[in-house]
Amino acid sequence: MIRETPLDRILMRTAGWLLAALWIVPLTYALWSAFHPAAFEARFELTAPLTLENFVTAWGKAPFARYFLNTILLVTMVLTVQLVLCTLAAFAFARLEFPGKSVLFGLVLVQLLIMPDILLVENYRTMFRLGLVDTILAIGLPYFASGFAIFLLRQTFRTIPKELDEAARVEGCSLLGLLWRVYVPLGKPAMLAFGLVSVSHHWNNFLWPLVITNSVETRPLTVGLSIFATTDSGIEWAVINAATLMTSAPLLLGFLLFQRQFVQSFMRAGIK
Amino acid sequence: MPRRHWIHAWLLLLPAFVFLIAFTHYPAVQTLIDSFWSTPRGRRPSVFVGAENYTRMMADPVFAKAMWNSAIYAALTIPTSIVLSLAMALFVQARFRGVSLMRMAFFTPTVLPLIAVANIWLFFYAPGFGLIDQIRMFFGFGSANYVGQPATALYAVAAVTVWKEAGFFMIFYLAALQTIPTSLREAAAIEGCSRLTFFRRVTLPLIMPTTLFVSVNATINAFRLVDHVFVMTRGGPDNASMLLLYYIFENGFRYWDTAYAAALTMVLVAILTLVGIGQFFAADRRVHYR
Q1: Which residues of chain B fall short of a pLDDT of 50?
Q2: What burial class does residue A210 get, using C-beta atoms within 10 Å of its C-beta: 0-12 exposed, 13-18 middle, 19+ buried?
Q3: Cβ-nearest to A244 among B13, B94, B120
Q4: Is the pLDDT reported for residue A131 higher than 90?
Q5: What does each C-alpha distance from A206 to A185, A200, A220, B32, B231 come to in angstroms?
Q6: Which of A40, A125, B259, B290 is most exposed, with the fewest beta carbons within 10 Å of its own?
């Protein structure tokens, strides 16, 4: 092994901690102002009183409860449909032979580059024709068939030993039975990984929901927050920061509690 | 293979393809068609105008500005994110007390919504209140509005992108660093190779596939991530931070000039397609270490 000299180690640790400190500063600054009275938003005194007042004010000034509900409905719907549709398609690509397979798979991969996010105008027109403008369903629809999920699950299914597959077929298992009894249970880790990525992506998604929604009943948190933060009604920074942290809190808490799973899921999802 | 099998396969694919075609392929093709037609306005229906939307684009100074800005934005965010994320991975690769805290500091911005990140940074930059201004004033400089002045707006936005995505790329480098066989380190130690040489000659080439993967993602992000522009600058001041996707949004949903927005979208699609082709060839050639 190449030995790490003590000097190397000190240099690496110092540089590491400096960068880490720099990285955490903006968030800490927002945390400070959110938990202190507005008078202290730019004054740093250790004796400054802690308060939850800013959160209460923010919660009262905009329908955040409704926004939370909308976002939760949205991410649940999107993930459920994605898992069903993409598992079926991934199974066909992984284990069945049929004409047109490579062309169709190519069409799936197109979505990895040209995402629905950039085809705003045309998708808006489609939703308008379907009479779905300003519905939660319309926010989710373009993402139901995820090329990424199909790709990820196909890779996973291909690693499942063929012997298991054949044994089940010999036992007289139908195609869907095979998928449900063999492939789905063994593909669970990949589905969990995709689930975390999908939930955090749609919790955070902004542009398409901004375009397609225009009422409190449908707006997700991100759009609600942006409207709250940009209305020129002279809302204090401390309150805006409180609202910002509040809307990110579920993901942030989830991440802090399940750090390892989060990091591994993102890694898994990216590398395959 | 029996014909019954084909039908089963197609049936399994059908539901996914309905959505895939309806919301990815159809709109992509329709956008191409629309870019050769005019925007319907009031009683005037859409008419075929040939390349008019594109010739107008060539003469549009805001489009030129948006392309130039997107290029600067990409040139700033891509290399910076890559270098920083690799450095982060090297910092947290070893085991020591507090390593998980350090990793958390790097990764946390990745979990936050970009809109929330934009608010946090807007406060951070805020003239008078923000930490940067506080430090400036402490050292006797005047207050500066980084987001509000044309000279710095784009850089202020780019810094936010790097802050958000570097921790995400870090985990891919972390995974790649773990796959480097220890036997190589032992061999290098016997040869009396320095740590720096080992990094340059062994580590860097071995993590090349990851660098390619990260570069492609950083490039796509450079054209796709504009959420923070909505909160921080709205493309301004004076189009100083106008990016291509934001300009598409403005034309499509603020001026309702859908034909021009379609032509602009085609430019974005062309750029992303080039990235995809580039990735394909690069993956074929230089990075065959796996």
Answers
A1: 288-290
A2: buried
A3: B120
A4: yes
A5: 33, 12, 8, 25, 11
A6: B290
Asked if B195 and A175 come within 8 Å (Cβ–Cβ), the reply is: no
Distances (CA, A) of A198 to A5, A58, A105, A146: 43, 28, 21, 10
Task: Give the homologous superfamily in CATH for domain B35-285.
Answer: MetI-like (1.10.3720.10)
pLDDT recorded at residue A44: 67
What does A197-240 look like in DSSP terms, one character per residue? HHHHHHHH--HHHHHH--STTT--HHHHHHHHHHS-S---HHHH
Share of chain A above pLDDT 90, in %: 32
CB A160 within 8 A of CB A181: no
The pTM (predicted TM-score) of the whole model is 0.87
Per-residue pLDDT, B290: 41
Q: Do B23 and A123 touch (CB under 8 A)?
A: yes
Could you tell me which CATH class the domain A57-271 is placed in? mainly alpha
* Residue B243 pLDDT: 92
Please state the rounded mean pLDDT for residues A122-132: 93
Q: Strands, DSSP E only, in B106-176?
A: none
Mutate to test the interface with B, among A28, A80, A121 (most CBs of B within 10 A): A121
A263 interface with B at CB cutoff 8 Å: yes
Compute the nearest-CA separation of A30 from chain B (Å). Answer: 6
pLDDT of residue A59: 87
* Domain range summary for chain A, segments of one domain joined by +: 57-271
Name beta bridge partners: B48.
B37
Sign of CA dihedral B172, B176, B177, B178: positive
Q: Tell whether the model's pLDDT for residue A1 goes beyond 60.
A: no
Name the residue ranges covered by the structural domains of chain B. 35-285
